Amino acid sequence: xxxxxxxxxxxxxxxxxxxxxxxxxxxxxxxxxxxxxxxxxxxxxxxxxxxxxxxxxxxxxxxxxxxxxxxxxxxxxxxxxxxxxxxxxxxxxxxxxxxxxxxxxxxxxxxxxxxxxxxxxxxxxxxxxxxxxxxxxxxxxxxxxxxxxxxxxxxxxxxxxxxxxxxxxxxxxxxxxxxxxxxxxxxxxxxxxxxxxxxxxxxxxxxxxxxxxxxxxxxxxxxxxxxxxxxxxxxxxxxxxxxxxxxxxxxxxxxxxxxxxxxxxxxxxxxxxxxxxxxxxxxxxxxxxxxxxxxxxxxxxxxxxxxxxxxxxxxxxxxxxxxxxxxxxxxxxxxxxxxxxxxxxxxxxxxxxxxxxxxxxxxxxxx
Length: 367
Known about the structure:
It comes from Nonomuraea endophytica. The chain is an alpha/beta fold. The chain has 13 helices and 18 strands. The longest helix has 27 residues.
């Protein structure tokens, strides 16, 4: 069996690793000149770490400093809205790891034979029979995997009438700040904006900012510093410590629910199938789950039956997580003063187990 993978990000490379380990021939087509990713950190949650364990790579990340689960959510003054029992989360679900995205890409890339990697190859069309037209010519395979992101060429080729990715109303900035004395992962909510920070193993701090804005807005670092200048420590210091060129801004999109992830000999995977808001931090984790599941079903059932089994296993779960991610983040982007006041008063009154139970379906995945 031969599988062509369109896209060399986390999902595409993880799929290549999983298939190669099962003796399946792979070819990864990546439009960028090299297989890498820049500029941001990534939280690998317990389910994503179990997917990496299935690839034999989990211990590489565990060898670094394990991150704690998210400590909770504060308001802009620093008062706790939700305070997680981090020891209970670790006991119930397992460890968290924070890693630079480029480091994870490097780990996955090293586990794929160099001859299977084709950078600088732009895919133009994918057909249901497994034919791929690209900048280097035409390739064919028993199975094609579209792991080419939220604006997937694969999805557009096979499902041209499906709705486009939907802008959710807020844009996201990401950056990595120099080492500072930050000991836990925290997200802070305001009115239509929020700020999150996670310590990384080397002492640097991965930060993300989300704010309501029209699609395509270009908001620079100086404006962010002004907007968050009166928020609790260490948020102003984190913004002051980073240079403009280190901040990446990207609009936030969600993919409407697809009726299937499979067409003929082609399957969608990761953001190409189920792009979601980053509110649960599950985008990369779900792509890793997709990769392990797809390799398992193809190996045990063959192309057609394996693709059908993949769709049955992954579509309900990922679409549930897309929905939960949207719902979890919505209150952070309320702008009404009465509504945000009610939110900030009500959240601390809810029992801790309410939040822990809501996380169980996300974190307890196994292949």
